[in-house]
Design a protein that fits this description.
Elements lengths: L1 E4 L6 E2 L4 E2 L2 H4 L2 H15 L3 E4 L3 H4 E3 L2 E2 L2 H12 L3 E7 L15 H15 L5 E5 L2 H9 L11 H25 L4 E7 L2 E4 L5 H10 L2 H6 L6 H9 L4 H8 L7 E6 L5 E4 L5 E3 L6 H12 L3 E5 L10 H18 L4 E7 L4 E2 L12 E2 L12 H13 L17 H4 L4 H16 L1
Parallel strand pairs: 1-4, 1-15, 4-7, 7-8, 8-9, 9-11, 10-12, 11-14, 14-15
Antiparallel strand pairs: 2-3, 5-6, 12-13, 16-17
Helix pairs in contact: 2-4, 5-7, 6-7, 12-13
């Protein structure tokens, strides 16, 4: 799956008073047809995309599907397969933030309603980058609740991951062969000195928390004490262990230049740049979860020479091929996102209107050098790589191949797939 994305981040800042809407900042609401033209110009068939939840989910049982109806109908007409991103770093004002204990149930209702309305959609990322969302909202104090303590972080994390799992359950009730592609940040913490080893080890365990809970994997004793010491109950922890949906999942991971960190003895961290690289860090995650892999996000600024992003694309693609060559089932690659982004230089903490030249196209919808390079990469490799859908318990079906969704047929396949997964 060669993919890109149209980012639908919508966190709040200024104590919830200001909404940062990436689709609005990049003019997607007005120029969405041009954006879909850009996708087809490059030859991309898979798109990470979703409606802005705060504009769509108006209250319990109340939805405004007007924008989604026209955009998703057009994606279907163009044979562009969406990987539907339902919640990207924020919630509607009426829900508040991720400290709200009602969020999991409310999000599950929203996910179910979406799947009910668009039964032809098979691929989902229910909640994007769960770990980063919890860290930025409740540990760093940057977004949404803007809190900075461990208890708030654990509260946000358990609510976000439980919402993700409950959302998957509701989607599966409507689409039994749905596939969930987690898009989670890949992190690694390098100890600067022997005195920093202990702190680095703790951080390297914490990076797995969202996926451990999501996949129903037992955490180690340190993390168990950390979770229960900061507000998670044993019953809440056991709930995650008893709700495993791995047979319907692809481990999607994101890797950027800032994903590796250097840890110092006093506990502070700085960016380490690309040290291990995508292949080695993904191998660590794969050894832990044993799921098919998809590279779901990467990018780099186009700098003064005009080839910086092109070189990064080539390097990330070489890492993806390396994963496949060593036997790790790898099913997709994504340059994120389609068009330049706004204010990611300050992690969306400020609305400055700064254009970050990260896209395959600029904001005037002119193709960038990396867009041309990605177009050529797709053309070169699309028919060379052997299909690896055999590594999936539940198969991916292209839009043109699935016809009208047959609920009874899917139920039979799901039962067979779950038996295979159990075996």
């Amino acid at each position: 799956m060669f993919a890109t994305g149209i980012e639908n981040s919508i966190p709040t800042i200024n104590n919830g008073k200001t909404r940062v809407d990436q689709m609005e900042a990049c003019d997607h609401y007005r120029r969405w047809r041009e954006d879909f033209d850009c996708i087809q110009e490059i030859g991309i068939n898979y798109l990470r995309y979703g409606p802005p939840i705060y504009k769509t989910y108006l209250g319990p049982g109340r939805y405004d599907w007007s924008f989604s109806d026209v955009t998703f109908a057009e994606l279907k007409r163009r044979d562009i397969t969406p990987i539907v991103d339902l919640c990207h770093f924020g919630v509607p004002d009426w829900i508040g933030n991720f400290q709200n204990p009602d969020f999991p149930q409310l999000f599950a209702q929203y996910a179910g309603a979406f799947a009910e309305r668009y039964p032809w959609v098979q691929l989902y990322t229910p909640i994007n980058e769960m770990f980063i969302c919890a860290v930025f909202s409740a540990k760093y104090g940057w977004w949404n609740e803007q809190l900075q303590d461990d208890r708030s972080f654990v509260t946000a994390l358990k609510h976000i991951v439980r919402a993700n799992v409950m959302g998957m359950i509701e989607i599966l009730k409507r689409r039994h062969d749905a596939i969930f592609i987690q898009s989670e940040s890949s992190e690694y913490y390098h100890a600067d000195s022997p005195a920093a080893i202990g702190r680095a080890e703790i951080l390297n365990q914490m990076r797995f928390l969202s996926l451990d809970l999501n996949y129903g994997r037992r955490v180690n004793s340190d993390m168990y004490e950390y979770l229960l010491g900061n507000g998670m109950t044993k019953e809440e922890y056991d709930w995650f262990l008893n709700h495993r949906l791995k047979q319907n999942c692809i481990f999607g991971n994101d890797y950027y230049m800032l994903n590796e960190h250097r840890v110092f003895a006093d506990g502070h961290t700085v960016a380490a740049g690309e040290t291990f690289g995508y292949c080695e860090i993904t191998r660590q995650y794969y050894n832990r979860y044993r799921l098919p892999v998809m590279h779901t996000e990467t990018n780099l600024w186009e700098g003064p020479h005009g080839d910086e992003a092109v070189k990064w694309l080539w390097k990330e693609w070489a890492n993806v091929l390396r994963l496949r060559n060593v036997g790790i089932p790898t099913v997709g690659f994504t340059w994120y996102s389609l068009i330049d982004q706004i204010d990611w230089d300050t992690a969306l903490r400020e609305k400055n209107g700064n254009v970050n030249p990260l896209g395959l196209f600029d904001l005037d919808r002119n193709i960038r050098n990396v867009g041309r390079a990605y177009k050529q990469l797709i053309a070169d490799w699309r028919d060379v790589l052997p299909a690896q859908s055999v590594c999936l318990v539940v198969p991916i079906k292209k839009l043109g191949e699935q016809g009208e969704y047959d609920d009874d047929d899917a139920a039979g396949r799901s039962a067979a797939n779950q038996t295979m997964a159990a075996e």
